[in-house]
Write a sequence for this structure.
Protein backbone atom coordinates (compact mmCIF):
# COMPACT_ATOMS: atom_id res chain seq x y z
CA UNK A 1 0.00 0.00 0.00
CA UNK A 2 2.72 2.60 0.84
CA UNK A 3 4.20 2.04 -2.64
CA UNK A 4 0.83 2.77 -4.28
CA UNK A 5 0.50 5.95 -2.30
CA UNK A 6 3.98 7.01 -3.29
CA UNK A 7 3.16 6.53 -7.00
CA UNK A 8 -0.06 8.48 -6.56
CA UNK A 9 1.83 11.33 -4.88
CA UNK A 10 4.32 11.38 -7.74
CA UNK A 11 1.51 11.56 -10.29
CA UNK A 12 -0.06 14.47 -8.41
CA UNK A 13 3.28 16.27 -8.29
CA UNK A 14 3.72 15.78 -12.03
CA UNK A 15 0.26 17.17 -12.72
CA UNK A 16 1.00 20.26 -10.64
CA UNK A 17 4.24 21.06 -12.40
CA UNK A 18 2.60 20.50 -15.79
CA UNK A 19 0.01 23.21 -15.15
CA UNK A 20 0.66 26.71 -16.57
CA UNK A 21 2.68 28.91 -14.25
CA UNK A 22 1.41 32.34 -13.18
CA UNK A 23 2.85 35.80 -13.77
CA UNK A 24 2.64 35.35 -17.54
CA UNK A 25 5.60 32.98 -17.53
CA UNK A 26 6.59 32.36 -21.10
CA UNK A 27 3.34 33.86 -22.39
CA UNK A 28 4.95 36.09 -25.01
CA UNK A 29 1.85 36.09 -27.23
CA UNK A 30 -0.32 37.58 -24.47
CA UNK A 31 2.40 40.05 -23.53
CA UNK A 32 2.58 41.25 -27.14
CA UNK A 33 -1.21 41.57 -27.30
CA UNK A 34 -1.14 43.52 -24.04
CA UNK A 35 1.54 45.91 -25.31
CA UNK A 36 -0.27 46.44 -28.63
CA UNK A 37 -3.54 47.17 -26.81
CA UNK A 38 -1.74 49.71 -24.61
CA UNK A 39 -0.40 51.49 -27.71
CA UNK A 40 -3.90 51.45 -29.18
CA UNK A 41 -5.64 53.02 -26.16
CA UNK A 42 -2.74 55.47 -25.74
CA UNK A 43 -3.47 56.80 -29.23
CA UNK A 44 -7.18 56.85 -28.44
CA UNK A 45 -6.78 58.85 -25.23
CA UNK A 46 -4.48 61.38 -26.87
CA UNK A 47 -6.95 61.79 -29.74
CA UNK A 48 -9.73 62.42 -27.20
CA UNK A 49 -7.77 65.25 -25.58
CA UNK A 50 -8.12 67.04 -28.95
CA UNK A 51 -11.69 66.06 -29.87
CA UNK A 52 -13.46 66.50 -26.50
CA UNK A 53 -12.82 70.27 -26.29
CA UNK A 54 -14.49 70.65 -29.71
CA UNK A 55 -17.55 68.75 -28.48
CA UNK A 56 -17.65 70.86 -25.32
CA UNK A 57 -17.79 74.05 -27.41
CA UNK A 58 -20.70 72.65 -29.42
CA UNK A 59 -22.70 71.60 -26.33
CA UNK A 60 -25.61 73.80 -25.25
CA UNK A 61 -26.27 73.20 -21.55
CA UNK A 62 -23.81 74.15 -18.83
CA UNK A 63 -24.37 70.77 -17.17
CA UNK A 64 -23.11 68.92 -20.23
CA UNK A 65 -20.26 71.38 -20.80
CA UNK A 66 -19.16 70.82 -17.20
CA UNK A 67 -19.34 67.01 -17.54
CA UNK A 68 -17.19 67.11 -20.69
CA UNK A 69 -14.72 69.55 -19.06
CA UNK A 70 -14.28 67.12 -16.16
CA UNK A 71 -13.71 64.29 -18.61
CA UNK A 72 -11.08 66.29 -20.51
CA UNK A 73 -9.14 66.73 -17.27
CA UNK A 74 -9.53 63.02 -16.47
CA UNK A 75 -8.41 62.01 -19.96
CA UNK A 76 -5.20 64.02 -19.59
CA UNK A 77 -4.51 62.19 -16.31
CA UNK A 78 -5.28 58.87 -18.01
CA UNK A 79 -2.69 59.60 -20.69
CA UNK A 80 -0.15 60.15 -17.91
CA UNK A 81 -1.18 56.89 -16.24
CA UNK A 82 -0.66 54.95 -19.46
CA UNK A 83 2.82 56.45 -19.69
CA UNK A 84 3.43 55.14 -16.16
CA UNK A 85 2.38 51.66 -17.27
CA UNK A 86 4.76 51.80 -20.24
CA UNK A 87 7.53 52.84 -17.84
CA UNK A 88 6.73 49.93 -15.51
CA UNK A 89 7.06 47.59 -18.48
CA UNK A 90 10.32 49.30 -19.44
CA UNK A 91 8.78 50.15 -22.80
CA UNK A 92 8.74 53.42 -24.69
CA UNK A 93 5.30 55.10 -24.62
CA UNK A 94 4.17 54.66 -28.21
CA UNK A 95 0.82 55.30 -29.84
CA UNK A 96 -0.63 53.01 -32.50
CA UNK A 97 -3.56 54.37 -34.49
CA UNK A 98 -6.83 53.16 -33.01
CA UNK A 99 -9.28 52.64 -35.87
CA UNK A 100 -12.20 52.15 -33.49
CA UNK A 101 -11.64 55.46 -31.69
CA UNK A 102 -11.05 57.28 -34.97
CA UNK A 103 -14.44 55.99 -36.15
CA UNK A 104 -16.17 57.02 -32.92
CA UNK A 105 -14.69 60.53 -33.12
CA UNK A 106 -15.83 60.89 -36.75
CA UNK A 107 -19.30 59.73 -35.73
CA UNK A 108 -19.39 62.37 -32.99
CA UNK A 109 -18.45 65.03 -35.55
CA UNK A 110 -21.27 63.83 -37.83
CA UNK A 111 -23.78 64.06 -34.97
CA UNK A 112 -22.79 67.70 -34.43
CA UNK A 113 -23.10 68.47 -38.15
CA UNK A 114 -26.52 66.84 -38.40
CA UNK A 115 -28.09 68.59 -35.38
CA UNK A 116 -29.10 72.20 -34.92
CA UNK A 117 -26.87 74.52 -32.93
CA UNK A 118 -28.18 75.50 -29.50
CA UNK A 119 -30.68 72.64 -29.21
CA UNK A 120 -31.20 69.93 -26.63
CA UNK A 121 -31.26 67.49 -29.54
CA UNK A 122 -27.63 68.30 -30.26
CA UNK A 123 -26.77 67.78 -26.59
CA UNK A 124 -28.56 64.43 -26.63
CA UNK A 125 -26.54 63.47 -29.70
CA UNK A 126 -23.28 64.55 -28.08
CA UNK A 127 -24.09 62.49 -24.99
CA UNK A 128 -24.84 59.47 -27.18
CA UNK A 129 -21.50 59.88 -28.99
CA UNK A 130 -19.60 60.34 -25.72
CA UNK A 131 -21.19 57.27 -24.16
CA UNK A 132 -20.21 55.16 -27.16
CA UNK A 133 -16.64 56.29 -26.51
CA UNK A 134 -16.99 55.48 -22.80
CA UNK A 135 -18.29 51.98 -23.48
CA UNK A 136 -15.39 51.30 -25.83
CA UNK A 137 -12.94 52.49 -23.18
CA UNK A 138 -14.64 50.46 -20.44
CA UNK A 139 -14.33 47.33 -22.58
CA UNK A 140 -10.68 48.10 -23.39
CA UNK A 141 -9.54 48.93 -19.85
CA UNK A 142 -11.49 45.99 -18.43
CA UNK A 143 -9.58 43.68 -20.76
CA UNK A 144 -6.24 45.36 -20.03
CA UNK A 145 -6.76 44.92 -16.29
CA UNK A 146 -7.40 41.21 -16.81
CA UNK A 147 -4.35 40.85 -19.06
CA UNK A 148 -2.16 42.63 -16.50
CA UNK A 149 -3.44 40.38 -13.70
CA UNK A 150 -2.81 37.25 -15.78
CA UNK A 151 0.73 38.44 -16.55
CA UNK A 152 1.38 39.12 -12.86
CA UNK A 153 1.71 42.86 -13.43
CA UNK A 154 -0.09 43.88 -10.25
CA UNK A 155 1.04 47.50 -10.18
CA UNK A 156 0.07 48.05 -13.82
CA UNK A 157 -3.28 46.38 -13.17
CA UNK A 158 -3.91 48.78 -10.27
CA UNK A 159 -3.18 51.83 -12.42
CA UNK A 160 -5.43 50.59 -15.23
CA UNK A 161 -8.18 49.68 -12.75
CA UNK A 162 -8.23 53.31 -11.55
CA UNK A 163 -8.89 54.50 -15.10
CA UNK A 164 -11.52 51.80 -15.63
CA UNK A 165 -13.47 53.03 -12.60
CA UNK A 166 -13.25 56.63 -13.85
CA UNK A 167 -14.65 55.62 -17.25
CA UNK A 168 -17.57 53.85 -15.57
CA UNK A 169 -18.27 56.93 -13.45
CA UNK A 170 -18.16 59.23 -16.49
CA UNK A 171 -20.63 56.99 -18.30
CA UNK A 172 -22.96 57.17 -15.29
CA UNK A 173 -22.60 60.96 -15.10
CA UNK A 174 -23.53 61.31 -18.79
CA UNK A 175 -26.60 59.12 -18.24
CA UNK A 176 -27.69 61.35 -15.35
CA UNK A 177 -27.17 64.52 -17.41
CA UNK A 178 -29.30 63.06 -20.21
CA UNK A 179 -32.05 61.88 -17.87
CA UNK A 180 -32.20 65.12 -15.84
CA UNK A 181 -33.72 67.13 -18.68
CA UNK A 182 -31.88 66.96 -21.99
CA UNK A 183 -33.64 63.92 -23.48
CA UNK A 184 -37.05 65.26 -22.47
CA UNK A 185 -36.28 68.71 -23.91
CA UNK A 186 -35.03 67.11 -27.14
CA UNK A 187 -38.32 65.22 -27.40
CA UNK A 188 -40.21 68.53 -27.06
CA UNK A 189 -38.14 70.05 -29.86
CA UNK A 190 -39.11 67.18 -32.15
CA UNK A 191 -42.77 67.70 -31.36
CA UNK A 192 -42.53 71.42 -32.09
CA UNK A 193 -40.93 70.70 -35.47
CA UNK A 194 -43.69 68.21 -36.31
CA UNK A 195 -46.35 70.78 -35.40
CA UNK A 196 -44.71 73.43 -37.56
CA UNK A 197 -44.60 71.04 -40.51
CA UNK A 198 -48.30 70.20 -40.05
CA UNK A 199 -49.24 73.90 -39.99
CA UNK A 200 -47.39 74.46 -43.25
Amino acid sequence: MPTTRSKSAKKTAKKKTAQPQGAGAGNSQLEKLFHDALKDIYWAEKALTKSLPKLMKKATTEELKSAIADHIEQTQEQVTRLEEVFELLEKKAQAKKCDAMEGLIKEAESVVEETEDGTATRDAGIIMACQKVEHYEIATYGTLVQFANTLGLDEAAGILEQTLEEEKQTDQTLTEVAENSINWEAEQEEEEEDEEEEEE
